User: What shape does this take?
Amino acid sequence: MVNGLPVRVKYCDTCMLYRPPRCSHCSICNNCVERFDHHCPWVGQCVGLRNYRYFFCFVFSATLLCMYVFAMSALYIKILMDDHQCTVWKAMRKSPASVILMSYCFISLWFVGGLTGFHLYLISTNQTTYENFRYRADNRINVYDRGCLNNFLEVFCTTVKPSRNDFRAIVQEESQRSPMPTTTRDSEADDRGDNRRMKVEDDLDIGGDLLKISQRHNIDIEANIHSRDSDAPRHNISEADDVLGSDRRVPDVRSDTRHSSWGRRSGSWEIGTEGSYAISKE
Assistant: This one.
């Protein structure tokens, strides 16, 4: 809660900690920075809670310096004009360094002066550069705004908090942890896992065998159907005999079959050779 309003706290996967409000992770420094403003390439570090006032003083002093050098160069040219009773062009010819400094400071003043004005606006509204550019289009309520005067006092008159990270500390080597002793429950769980794995493998083997048997059974039935179509007397064989006999023979070999005595008055019957029918003996 900030000023009576809820603020969402995020978790940083890189630093593995919950970031405080207004804290953001800098991809260049690879650290989470409190009250993150921006990463400044000119000073080579992030601008945040502990160094924001010094950064503003640096930018503001650079603006004053440009204004001072520009004004002193112009004043020197004015003095040359009064001393030699000459025009501006002649005075500038006598002091080319003043012209160069005036040009340099005039160009630099647009950058550092604009940056100073922008940060004055951010301080007066208690914002950061990151928040201004990211949440400006969302029209969010600024829960950190405490008034213009209090915002300036918060930035310049509060004590600087110590860093949460001691970067100069000596890294301590981690002690090697002893392996956890295995308990009876763990061993029982491993045994159960092995038994289940073996059971699954047995089930897979049985399933493969059943699949092969069913495929062979289907092939036998198709072979019997084709043999019925090609040989008319084969229609007298019962379907039960074909199904039972198909389990005991392969598709290429046909077992001997016993034919009934329908249409015969008397006589003895014998089983013929493979591929032949029974012959009666009168």
Remarks:
- Residues 184-230 form the longest helix (47 residues).
